[in-house]
Amino acid sequence: MRPIPWIDPNLGQQAFGEFAAHWMETGTLRPGVRQLYDRQVRLRIIPTFRDVSVADITTRLVREWYSGLMKEAAERKRGAVSVDTSYRLLRGILTTAVDDGPIHRNPCRIKGAGAVRETKRPEITVDQLWSLSDTVPERYRALVWLASATAMRSGELAAPRRKDVDLRRREIRIDPKEGQYIEPGGGEEPYFGPPKTDAGARTIPIPETILGIVVLHMHDHA
Fold first, then answer.
1. Span 39-58, mean pLDDT?
2. DSSP 8-state code for residue 116
3. What are phi and psi of 174, to 5 degrees?
4. Counting C-beta atoms within 10 Å of the first and last residue's C-beta, which end of the chain has fewer, N or C?
C-alpha cells in the first residue's frame, strides 16, 4: 500500500473563499474566461463553500451541493450546463489545493459530473434567414449573413476592422490580439481583446454566395 504523504494540518484551515480568490488572482486566464469563472464562483460556489476550510470540503458536501444545483436546474428546465461548468471549476480549484499541499485528495469525485453536455442548437431555415436579413437595419445585414455562413462567434463578428477584411483574397482575418469584441459588464467598458482560444486567431474565407453582400457593406459602411 502506498503511504499517504504527511500534510501540515494548518495549510488546510484556510477558508475556501480566500483560497478561491487567490486562485482567481494568480491564474493565467483570458478576460472572457475570467469573467465566466468569476460569475460561476460568486453565484454558485461561494454561497456554499465560502467559510468552509479547504480541508473540510468532503465528497459528501460536494455531492450535496451538486445535487441541489442539478435539482434546481431540472425544476427550471435550464441551467444544467452551467452547473457542470461550476463543478469543473470547483474541481480545478481543489486540484490546485492538492498540488499546493492543503489536501492530498480532491473531494470532487462524482462520476459523470462535469461532463460536457451536447445540447441541440436551434436551426434557422433559409426563409427565416432572409426574413431576418430584411428585418434588421441595413448596416447589420452583412453581420447576419456572415454569422450564418462562417460560424464566427458573436464577439468575432463585432470585432473586424477594415484592415482585417481582404476582398481581393476573399477572407477575414481574426486578429490574435484584438480579434474579439468583449463586453465585460459590471460597469466595465467594452474592449477589443484576443479570441477565446489561441486557435481562434485564424483566417476565414468569405463564401462566394455572400461576397457581394460583404462588398456592398464595405463600400457603404466601412
1. 94
2. P
3. -90, 110
4. N
* Identity of the amino acid at 62: V
Q: Could you identify the residue written with the cell 451538486?
A: 66
Q: Which residues contact 117 (CB under 8 A, 6 or more apart)?
A: 80, 81, 84
| Distance in angstroms (rounded) separating the CA atoms of residues 44 and 40 | 5
Q: CB-based contacts of 122: which residues, under 8 Å, 6+ apart? A: none
Reference 105, options 117, 115, 97; nearest CA is 97
Q: How confident is the model at residue 116, as a pLDDT?
A: 65
Q: Which residues pair with 165 in a beta bridge?
A: 172
| E-assigned strand segments in the chain | 165-166, 171-173, 180-182, 191-193, 203-205
Residues 62 and 138 in one domain: no
Question: 171-173 and 165-166: which strand pairing?
Answer: antiparallel
- Kindly state the DSSP code that residue 56 receives in the 8-state scheme: G
Residue 124 has pLDDT above 60, yes or no: yes
Name the residue with cell 493565467: 28
Instruction: Identify the domain containing residue 76 by its residue range.
Output: 11-100
CA 216, distance to chain mean position in Å, is 33
CA distance 185 to 179: 19
Residue 78 falls inside a structural domain:
yes
Q: What is the pLDDT of residues 172-202, one digit of tens each?
A: 999 999 998 888 766 778 888 888 778 888 9
